[in-house]
Amino acid sequence: MTTYASIEAILANIEKPDQILALNPELAQKPAKEPKTEARKDLEREIREAFARQFETVWRRCGGPELRKEFRFCETREWRNDYLHEATRTVIELDGGIYSGGRHVRPQGFIEDCVKLNTATMLDYRLIRIPTGMATDNYLSEIIAFLKKLEGR
């Protein structure tokens, strides 16, 4: 298991999103768009919350084990993961907005997610990503069975 003393060494060797963008300026080019209105921000927040409610409802219905919400896995960064199954050190990330150009699929957001999630992996966390549309009984049941199998080891 990686210790917190070695986190700084790991993070020092990871290029930061702004460094990556400096080396690849075409990734930083964004299409011109209007600033988001408050109504649009409210709608996007409502959609994110609905996805999280859907996940939690299906997770409970399928008999999923207890999860810790908004887990901060790295003491030197403000990063949080959506959910953590503590017994197996498995992080579950909900990746919404994949069809609407959300932050998970835009260049800078994607790069930032890669840095964050790769750091979690290097800190000995397992990672499961659930995109929009996949918080279903069948898919979550497979994940739950996997976690229960890991717990039984």
Could you walk me through the main structural features you see in this protein, from its secondary elements to its overall organization?
With 153 residues, the chain is of the alpha+beta class. Helices cover 46% and strands 14% of the residues. It has five helices and four strands. The chain has helices at residues 4-12, 17-23, 38-61, 107-122, 137-151, and strands at 68-71, 81-85, 90-95, 126-131. The chain has a four-stranded mixed β-sheet, with helices on both faces. A hairpin with a 4-residue loop joins strand 2 (81-85) and strand 3 (90-95). Helix 2 crosses helix 4.
Low-confidence stretches: none
Order of helices and strands: HHHEEEHEH
Let me know the average pLDDT: 82
What's the β-strand tally? 4
Radius of gyration: 17 Å
Query: What is the general shape?
Result: globular
Strand arrangement, major sheet: 1-2-3-4
First-to-last CA distance: 17 Å
Structural class: alpha+beta
Structure annotation, total helices: 5
Q: Proportion of β residues? A: 5-15%
Proportion of residues in helical segments: 40-55%
Characterize the largest beta sheet: strand count, sense, and whether it forms a barrel. Answer: 4 strands, mixed
